[in-house]
């Protein structure tokens, strides 16, 4: 078992591999396979270095270990592990595994889209920065000296390049110091906070705080809806939240809400105190309890949150890309005119 565990640590799974593995298992489970049979079947579609790990996983399952525990050994993403953890409680393996894989695939697709959008503008900015440095350090001083000797005025773009050349190093140093300060603050203070306090802090970040709020609400309501649809009560579902040791946020939320319920608070009132969740959740909880379809209400609201999040991300991407290109274009035009206009001024001076 130790040898298998060492192999698992050596061959780390990419997020795409993890998502595909769970989606394949979920599809086989939906076709009537048992968990062990589904894992065995996926073995033949994996790279050779992963097959040995899955064989060790199958041995562990036959030995009585849970699939959730095996994924921890395989060093799977904690969010995917949480899906499996709750699936082992409510029994809806097929849909939970497929949703987990779809969630991770969607996230990877969004990350890839962001990288694709940012790579080219960042390359242009780096190239422009080199060109800017060349013009500012070599060409402009010569033009300036020449202009002074001929008693000609410097044009607006020359002044802009000279001013930017003086300001950019200061701005870069300030940004670097700010990033270092944030890093120290994170390690010295934020890292030591409990998960609920950190989540509350993240949702207060300007511009992107609402993204965190939508994501937290999506994950919480989705897992809660799975458990409720599996036949568990609210109290039992929250107890399962408490047992999740891989994601402390679930554990802390479960503990907090249970304590609130013990004092006589209503469910929606208890969740209202969790300020980093969407405000509409309280209305959903109240309405779901009134019509007796809380599991379906939460499932629908979870889908609404993730769809809203994806739309906001796509909207931000569409906004960021033109801004980056516009900034790079402005720099290039300024450099071009700062070099070209002095030549015309010199020609006019003769």
Describe the 3D structure.
The chain has 350 residues and is mostly helical. It has 2 domains: 2-76, no CATH class; 77-123 and 187-350, Receptor-associated Protein. 82% of the residues lie in helices and 0% in strands. The chain is built from 15 helices and no strands. It has helices at residues 2-10, 15-30, 35-42, 48-62, 67-73, 78-90, 93-149, 156-188, 195-202, 209-229, 234-243, 248-262, 267-272, 280-291, 294-349. The longest helix has 57 residues, at 93-149. The relative contact order is 0.09. Mean pLDDT is 84; it is low at 1-10. Keywords: Cell membrane, Membrane, Transmembrane, Transmembrane helix. Belongs to the GSP F family. Its main location: membrane.
- Rounded to the nearest angstrom, the distance between the terminal CA atoms is 87 Å
In total, how many domains does the architecture comprise?
2
Helix-strand category: mainly alpha
What percent of the residues sit in helical stretches (DSSP H or I)?
A: over 70%
> How many separate helices?
15
Mean pLDDT level: 84
CATH fold-type name of the largest domain: Receptor-associated Protein
Rg value: 28 Å
Please summarize the sheet with the most strands.
none
Shape: elongated
Record field, number of beta strands: 0
Which H/E pattern describes the elements?
Answer: HHHHHHHHHHHHHHH
Q: State which percent range the strand residues make up.
A: under 5%
User: Unreliable stretches, pLDDT < 50, 5 or more residues?
Assistant: 1-10
CATH superfamily of the largest domain: Type II secretion system (T2SS), domain F
